Amino acid sequence: MTKPITITDVRCILTAPEGLNLVVVKVETSEPGLYGLGCATFTQRYLMVKTAVDEYLKPFLIGKDVSRIEDIWQTSMVNSYWRNGPALNNAISGVDMALWDIAGKRANMPVYDLLGGKTREGAAVYRHADGKSVNEVEDNVRKYLEQGLLYVRAQMGGYGGRIHNIKSPKGAPEGAYFDPHAYMRDTVRLFEHLRSTIGNEFETLHDVHERLAPIEAVRLSKNLEPYRLFFLEDALAPEQVDWFAIMRQQSATPIAMGELFTHPQEWLPLIQNRLIDFIRCHISTIGGLTPAKKLAHLCEAFSIRTAWHGPGDVSPIGHAANLHLDLSSANFGIQEWWGPSEQIKEVFPGTPELRGAYVYANDKPGLGIDIDEKLAAKYPCDNTQSIRPKGWTTARTADGGSWRP
Amino acid sequence: MSKPVTITDVKVILTAPEGINLVVIKVETSEPGLYGLGCGTFTQRYLTVATAVNDYLRDFLIGKDVANIEDIWQTSQVHSSWRNGPSLNNALSGVDMALWDIAGKRAGMPVYDLLGGKTREAAAVYRHADGKDVHEVEDNVRKFMDQGLLYIRCQMGGYGGRVSELSRAENTPPGAYFDPHQYARDTVKVFDHVRSAIGNDIELLHDVHERLAPIEAVRLSKNLQKYRLFFLEDALAPEQVEWFKVMRQQSTTPVAMGELFVNPQEWLHLVSNRLIDFIRCHISTIGGITPAKKLAHYCEGFSVRTAWHGPGDVSPVGHAANLHLDLSSANFGVQEWYGPSEVIHEVFPGTPELRRGYLYPNSNPGLGIDIDEKLAAKFPCDNSKSVPNMWTTARTRDGASARP
Which among A26, B48, B61, B366 would be 20 to 30 A from B356, CA to CA? Predict the structure, then answer.
């Protein structure tokens, strides 16, 4: 028996090349030059993830055999006894992805080959088109179509449509004010406009981002039926997922859900009761590749497809992990994609590339992505942006009442 | 309109008077001398709670009106976008309890009076009796009975029944090894012995602490029926709560669940489908008094009673919060109690007192509990104990990880 390769260090790398605070975990090993990288980005609370890694996971993991990915995932989850929350899951994800990266490097195979091999050559993506008016959104959708995109998400005025004149009572507190009713009317108008001007020969999507009361979300889903959405995203808050049973009784608009999920009890009933069509978790927030691959398999049994969360607050390492899942999953649906800047590609050599409608992986061993730590250090994280009182997470309606965004 | 009282600082106090790492949050206000205390104890990851408070909640809250407890709870929870996890909820709880403490002090009333007033004079508690064999467990049950306790939880050999002579596979890693089958057999033996030796005039409880496969938990619940447990605790892992349906079809042993809950999706169905009888969340881990009071009200609608988690890894501030909920809840069931040491009473003046089976509050305004910060500082927390192969690294014979 050869001597096992063991974990010698676990480090957090904090960097913000695009102004978004990212957390990358680097797992170093007893084999010279062999290390792995994982995404642990919980941008709103990134310092908590760092504490979880530095103070807890690192001492727990040093000396452990890098091949024991499943055992490390299981024991890391329960080592804190309380579990299934976003800060701890992200920390575990950083380690989990890094261990898969290491396993791929040791096998001299891309991670998708450890997960069953390619089921497709590239992953079709959707991009995000916004605008202040229906015409501006139309222009932005057309731009993406000209670039070869097949799927475009259309929004107007940001999530919840923050373009209305809102009258609040005197003394109403600071916040990101929006009007759910105006937002809903606008959204129907927007898709009516897009389908009548651009036509039906492209797939379009929309993200409610939890800005509606449950029955209003059902109504929107129903009212959007004539415009044939590819899917409607996050129509309900994660605390209200049982309402999908009512949406299902009334509307054939496909449903995508899961960005905010952190706990299996959020997705299990939705899947086993066939209440959603696409699962779109933020894979670092459910704990990494290990649970995401299991979740994809669970969904496959019910013909539910994957659409992993892929905005700018997933690090390129996390995007690479998404792509390895996409390529190896029989039930891949679509991949959200954010359009990385030049500087992020320099910080993360090997960032997957979008060409035409598809994101392509390189065929390097492991996740096929690296980090230039010196360059990363030139973009330090800034925690003050996490607090902003008017930030989008402090959503409020006209009278000042707090809303779950 | 008078000028609002605002939050001027939010401090984390870390202390371990009994060797267990505790997190207490102190909210200071614009009114001289007026402050509140809350429990934010997630002992296994207490430094993540400290980071959440020091680096996020503090800046978010300074300047806010202390009266707006509900709005502060709602906006703090969604401020991180991702939510419902144990680290963030504990941080939020520390602030939430402190704001209720402040509200009580401003009103000159104990918190239970802000929550609807006393529905009973004191809260009946249960204590924890363990032992290496059935006789030692019996002796320890009798000791508690002599002290006037009416409810006693019986365990043998710790959670899952630790065993020394076990046919472990070769080269198995370190961990807290147990044998689920031996544990299930032993547990029936304990209750058979205690009921035949002591009789039926005492309420007995048991905590599975998630150490059984789901159908084994159902079988244990069924096999324990004849010993008339007051309830069976945490028979399933929180990821497996749907199995309670199967248990319900087969056994009338009352079911208590919730110590590990962090997310409403864990409890909503169990309560509305009447699959449990007692809700026993760790109230700081669901976010404090605000969500716990709502959860108690929700449970009352289904005649599900409360049995809030109350071990040594709840700070005395958290125990006080439990007690204020107990006293003011129509559907109070029982309160777990841990028996604080003298030193804890010194660090936390006003810690509730147990007398002949009942826990009594004082009638001071607010939560009625304080912290001696100088004394607390003499018992620093020690993070090194959070990490090694402690009881949470549960493993079975072949070395596989089990959920503890």
Answer: B366
**Residue with the two structure tokens 């952190």:** A262
How far A273 CA lies from chain B's nearest CA (Å)? 13
pTM recorded for the entire structure: 0.94
Compare CB distances from A44 to B82, B173, B392 and report the shortest one's residue.
B82
Whether B159 is catalytic? yes
Query: Using an 8 Å Cβ cutoff, are B120 and B327 in contact?
Result: yes
Q: What is the pLDDT of residues A256-286, one digit of tens each?
A: 999 999 999 999 999 999 999 999 999 999 9
Q: Look up A209 and say whether it is catalytic.
A: yes
B284 CB within 8 Å of a chain A CB? no
Per-residue confidence (pLDDT) for residue B170, from 0 to 100: 87
- CB contact under 8 Å between B87 and A48, yes or no, is yes
Q: Rounded distance, CA B390 to CA B385, Å?
A: 8
A61 touches chain B (CB under 8 A): no
Cβ atoms of residues A29 and A8 within 8 Å: yes
Candidates B58, B60, B75, B81: best to mutate against A (most CBs of A within 10 A) is B81
* Contact residues on chain B for A389, CB-CB shorter than 8 A: 60
Count of residues in chain A: 405
| Ranges of H-type helices in B273-307 | 289-300
Which one from B193, B206, B209, B309 is the annotated catalytic residue? B209
Its ipTM equals: 0.90
CB A137 within 8 A of CB A391: no
What is the pLDDT at residue B160? 82
Chain A segment 113-132 residues within 8 A of B by beta carbon are none
State the pLDDT confidence band at A389, using cuts at 50, 70 and 90: low
Residue A40 pLDDT greater than 70, yes or no: yes
Query: Using CA atoms, how far apart are residues A175 and A401, in angstroms rounded to an integer?
Result: 10
**CA of A263: which chain B residue's CA is closest?**
B263
Closest Cα in chain B, distance from residue A29 (Å): 19
- In the block, residue with structure tokens 């005197």: A170
For residue A159, which residues of chain B lie inside 8 Å, CB to CB?
A: none
Asked if B50 and A386 come within 8 Å (Cβ–Cβ), the reply is no
* Order of strands, sheet of A176-177, starting from the edge strand that comes earlier in the sequence: A176-177, A395-396, A402-403
Q: List pLDDT tens digits, range B51-65.
A: 999 999 999 999 999
Q: Does A349 touch chain B (CB under 8 A)?
A: no
Backbone angles phi, psi at B287, to 5 degrees: 115, 5
